Predict the 3D structure of the following.
Amino acid sequence: VRQNPLNPAGMTEQVTYTGPQRILSGIQPTGNLHLGNYLGALKKFTDLQAKGWEGLYCVVDLHAITFPQDPEALAGQTRQIAAAMLASGLDPDESTIFVQSSVRAHSELAWIFNCVTRMGWLEKMTQFKDKSGKDSERVSVGLFDYPVLQAADILIYKATHVPVGEDQKQHLELTRNIAARFNQQFNAPGFFPLPEGLIEGPGARIMSLKDGTKKMSKSDPAENSRINLIDDAATIARKIKKSKTDTLGDMPETVEQLDGRPEVANLVGIYAALAGQSDEQVLTEYGGKGFGTFKPALADLAVAQLSPITQEMRRLLDDPAEIDVALAKGAEKANALAEPIIEEVRRVVGFWQV
């Protein structure tokens, strides 16, 4: 039994789910994927695949339309995200790669969860406040409600684990709350698992190359603030060499000396994530050296790691038939998992069935 910090009523949860261990995660098809998306998501997906996890990875196009999208652009971006997943090493035979809207059970379960979720829970979601800004009364209902759809994305497959960053931990708690409430309300103990977060390894939070206090973002108008996965080698090298550091001297020699130097800490973290090292190991090699030595080394490492992914993405996008085959296969696999679960949900809820 654990206490859920999201629920002020102090609802306790009995973890009795005994089904298979399964991962789900998704990426929105908006904007160009960048280095932060690769290190914080795509690379982790392939690492989890290599460890033998059963994983479902989807392009979450239903989430994308919480803001207006150009339909043609949305379809193109969906293929681009899928291409990045494939180019990064996700294997359609080992993992399930699909488009969210291809599995209609996501939307059906989201409506059922809407009737379980409490308004007070959603009103505590800080990301809605961040994304809506001062115009909260003018944004779509979908933007307010998308954490419920996110819970449905996870639970329609009875996923037990979700690779999340720090900014998604609140949403994971909401998913646990919804699962516990459903199990309790419909007298179905252990029906849905209470998913756990997987927050491990470097690269979970890559910051802007122009401001080490802001997360690297697809929506940042400053193109040099991020390294896009479709950038060529020369562009990658140029952006790193022009990245912001500071005027406090050479590279620090200890991790403690990174405090108060966010831009330098970010570059060290990027190097560590790409090289599979710790920050300490990076500073052992480069501590005390000038940025004129470190930045070219980081640029060479980034080009070596990212160029093969860029080339494979471009190959796939030039002839998208391979992408479409992978997505069709993934949709078939995902539907095969989701349909028996949504049928069971209908029975538990009490919907009339032929």
Remarks:
- The first strand starts at residue 2 and ends at 3.
- The chain is about 50% helix and 5% strand.
- The beta strands are 2-3, 12-13, 23-27, 55-59, 96-99, 161-163, 196-198.
- The CA atoms of residues 274 and 302 lie 7 Å apart.
